Amino acid sequence: MTTITDIALALGITPSTVSRALAGNPRVKEKTRLAVEKKAAEMGYERNIVASNLRKGRSNIVGIVVPRVRREFFANFIGGAEDVLASAGYNVIICQSQESLDSEIKALKALKNYRAAGVIISHSIESKDGNHIREIMGDLPIVQFDRVFPDLPGAKVVGANCDGAYQATMHLLKKGYKRIGTIAGYMSCMAFVERLAGYRMALEDAGINYDERLVYPDSILYETGKESARKAIADGCDALYCCGDYAALGAMDAAREAGLHIPEEMGIVGTANEFWADIMTPSLSSLGQHPFDMGQAAAHAFLDGRTGTEIIPMELHARQSSNKH
Amino acid sequence: MTTITDIALALGITPSTVSRALAGNPRVKEKTRLAVEKKAAEMGYERNIVASNLRKGRSNIVGIVVPRVRREFFANFIGGAEDVLASAGYNVIICQSQESLDSEIKALKALKNYRAAGVIISHSIESKDGNHIREIMGDLPIVQFDRVFPDLPGAKVVGANCDGAYQATMHLLKKGYKRIGTIAGYMSCMAFVERLAGYRMALEDAGINYDERLVYPDSILYETGKESARKAIADGCDALYCCGDYAALGAMDAAREAGLHIPEEMGIVGTANEFWADIMTPSLSSLGQHPFDMGQAAAHAFLDGRTGTEIIPMELHARQSSNKH
DNA sequence: CTGTTAGCGCGTTCAA
DNA sequence: TTGAACGCGCTAACAG
Fold first, then answer.
1. Strand D contacted by A318 CB (< 7 A)
2. Are residues B272 and B51 in contact, defined by beta-carbon separation less than 8 angstroms?
3. Which of A74, A94, A115, A249 should be substituted to probe chain B, the one whose Cβ sees the most B Cβ atoms within 10 Å?
């Protein structure tokens, strides 16, 4: 591994000059700079980032903390963010919180310890507020997305959850479903709270009383979605707006097991528009987010030091599971 | 940020002793160690990993380089590897090559530059051999998985590709399909080469001539799978073993567009057993790998400094798409 | 058992 | 425009 000292020695100058030349410092003579660059290339020099980071007290690492990488949504988000950040010269560390507060804290501490330049995060379900994030990261830039704590300052990128859920519920209403429940998420996450709000708003706009008993919360997985759907069926629901596609899948299976025909006797709309929503039978109507765009937006928010909230539209993909005649 | 010097000052000892105490060096008096630990906790000390890494010339970072995070297989692999590595005190950096050699090289260089302790990699399709990996990583431990270069020394974790493809093809034969083609992958990847070998072996064991014209390579995506399947249909195939589930999905759509009934007129088996294989209609028969186990195995291989090749079994999930009567 | 000394490689003063 | 000197925070070798 060649160092700036090696280059300096080979050129009969000092490491300081080499450092400056390589940093593009304008106070170094054109000629020396070229000589240094040439020599560096020749010797296969690459800056020791660890040393550089130590000296500067910061790094070009950006941490992305998500509940899990394997969710379509997060994976695509990461794809979008990585593109933008990589071309801006940042290295991305991806951390999974596995929906656990402990893991989230551990990941943040590791990032802080690596002197990350900032963090892009969608918090775990166990996280009740953003205090731990702020405490650990200090005044480093924090970009929140999807699941955000409104009181935590900094940039935010969110889907139009309320509007989307409104669309989805209104769609079910227009299709003629009468008793529409919702398989909801965790009320500790803004995103889910807003989806519930959109659901409620649609009902009320249609002159239907919002009935809390038809809200089945804490269900974002297949299993919990299925269980909640069983209750909803017992409660006489003929349609369900689900806050996630996995929960929606559980709901479909619950309906089938109860002998209900989809979409005639049970209409279902999910959220996330996972890849498989389109290929299953009956295909699953779902509220699509734009995770890739969100990733890009979050990266730009970080790079530009923006602090506002950016709202990315969501759109309904109406398919068979809600296509009542 | 408190440093070991702060602690030393507060305790009237030297930084070296603090460093040793914190490192659990047995040559430090029990009493001092306890005092140091207490003070450190009191002052909220956390070791500056960057400085530590610089000094030691290595870090506790392990890089995982995969084509893309969003593939079920890789996401699950990462999950398995991360579990094991995290509890061994390593931090994981996940890098995506996006199937591009350039990105792969960039990622490896970044890892090397961060003085990673090692790398766990499944190479991109563009990579023709492992020379760049070895050159960049020097003598750092390299664990290859799934797509491996046999000539590159170091540990390897692979699925039983040949055996699996054999099972899959034999299954199609037993179901009574007559003209079985294969939507194959890239011959630059061992994994795909072996699947092709297994396919061939099954045919020959059944007394059927292996016909190169029924091998449609370079098709692992939906689009390429579909296109290849169109050719296969034109060539009179009545079944296809596909090296990937996305390609298999493309093949199913090609068959439907050609008016062929699945599984009666066209049998299809995919590979990877993606989540959605089970829920689509007709459900997709698929060769399951055990990505989570593979991740754990790869992590252990790294931790134990093992160098052999570990083979993880694959198993056929026979479903509707190949269920001819 | 602990202190002293000496860097890891780089970037940033301050001088010249 | 360049050099000299220093230190980021930590660890390791060598003494004692």
1. no
2. no
3. A94
For residue B120, list its beta bridge partners.
B64, B143
Terminal CA-CA length for chain A: 71
Condensed to tens digits (0 to 9), the pLDDT of residues B277-310 reads 999 989 999 999 999 999 999 999 999 999 999 9
> B28 to chain A nearest CA, in Å?
26
CA distance A75 to A68: 8
User: CA–CA separation, B85 vs A24, rounded Å?
Assistant: 39
Look up residue A237 and give its two tokens.
Answer: 């629901």
- Kindly indicate the confidence band of residue A83, based on its pLDDT and cuts at 50, 70 and 90: confident
**Rounded to 5 degrees, what are φ and ψ at A216?**
-115, 95
Of A51, A94, A249, the CB nearest to B94: A94
pLDDT, one tens digit per residue, over A273-284 is 999 999 998 999
DSSP B320: G
Say how far apart CA B129 and CA B118 lie, in whole Å.
19
d(CA A239, CA A236) in angstroms, rounded, equals 9
Residue A247: its chain B contacts at CB < 8 A? none
Label each residue of A232-297 as H, E or C. Answer: HHHCCCCEEEECCHHHHHHHHHHHHHCCCCCCCCCEEEEECCCHHHHCECCCCEEEECCHHHHHHH
